[in-house]
Amino acid sequence: MTKVFIDGSAGTTGLRIYERLGERKDLELIILSGDKRKDLSARAEALNSADIAFLCLPDDAAREAVTLIKNDKTVVIDTSTAHRTADGWAYGFPELTGQREIVKNSKRIANPGCHASGFISLVKPLTENGILTSDAIVSAFSLTGYSGGGKKMIADYETDELSEALLAPRSYGLSQTHKHLPEMSKICGLDKMPLFTPIVSSYYSGMEVVITLAHEQINGTLADIKNIYGDYYNGGIVKYCENADESGFLSASKMSGRDDMEISVFGNDDRIMLVSRFDNLGKGASGAAIQNMNIVLGLPEETGLNIGE
């Protein structure tokens, strides 16, 4: 039976992975007692005993955890930012061309960032097909539920006395140095990091990443983009959806609780709007991590995941 260890199982992502995997009969979870979770020797033993190790830790702790592994069998799936642009690490978005096989054969897999997953799902097929060139300056914004901010932000939003400031959406990443920018530009083959504005609002989970393009920015048409997405995402966990609007609106929480992703296109040949919707805790975090594990184990990718019709 496959042995799995979640290092950092008390955090938001780790807890959700634990909940999903705890229901599976094909896996054996290695669990440390509360007093052992931060014990270096106990963690090292667990990491080296595991066939699959999920790292749900801050960046520095994730780097340290990797150094504790002294064998060549443990597959590491790191959900932190630490290794997403590092040499020798597979980027865990298997829907990209050729990436599924790379993930399958890797011992070191970097799980994508939530905002980055939405951005890359929209931009990479376009740079790959020449619709966008490497010197394109891409602007995007992302709406997310507060669960993506971790335990402190969840507590701030779920208090009985919610502050007035939290009742309305809030922009952040104001310095334009958001931690997901390096992976966005590298994976998409962009020379410059995108202009990116994340926005958190007072709902638990769900994410909507939006990119707007003028026809002068692209080599092609609205129809070309739709055809590319239709071919690129023709089934599986990431799907292209032709008629995705809800009576003229798009809810950022539509995919809440799910592990799949919906790609859609709106606008006209002059002004084009690209949208990726998913759960920031699903395909944006724990769902993607489990999908990558399933690929490594040779299982159907959707095993243990909540995938819509």
Characterise this structure:
By secondary structure, this protein is an alpha/beta fold. The protein folds into two domains: 2-112 and 285-296, Rossmann fold (3-Layer(aba) Sandwich), CATH 3.40.50.720; 114-280, Dihydrodipicolinate Reductase, domain 2 (2-Layer Sandwich). 30% of the residues lie in helices and 21% in strands. It has nine helices and 13 strands. The chain has helices spanning 12-21, 40-49, 59-67, 99-104, 114-128, 150-157, 181-188, 222-232, 282-296; strands at residues 2-7, 27-30, 52-55, 75-78, 90-91, 108-110, 139-145, 170-171, 195-201, 207-214, 238-240, 261-267, 271-278. The strands form two sheets. Strands 8-9-7-10-13-12-11 form a seven-stranded mixed beta sheet. A six-stranded parallel beta sheet has the order 2-1-3-4-6-5, with helices on both faces. Helix 1 crosses helix 9 and helix 5 (114-128) runs parallel beside helix 7 (181-188). The longest helix has 15 residues, at 114-128. The mean pLDDT is 95.
The fraction of residues assigned to DSSP E strands is 15-25%
Widest sheet: strand ordering: 8-9-7-10-13-12-11
Largest sheet: 7 strands, mixed
Count of helices?
9
CA-based shape: globular
Structural class from helices and strands? Answer: alpha/beta
CATH superfamily of the largest domain: Dihydrodipicolinate Reductase, domain 2
CATH architectural arrangement of the largest domain: 2-Layer Sandwich
Average pLDDT value? 95
What kind of oligomer do you see?
single chain
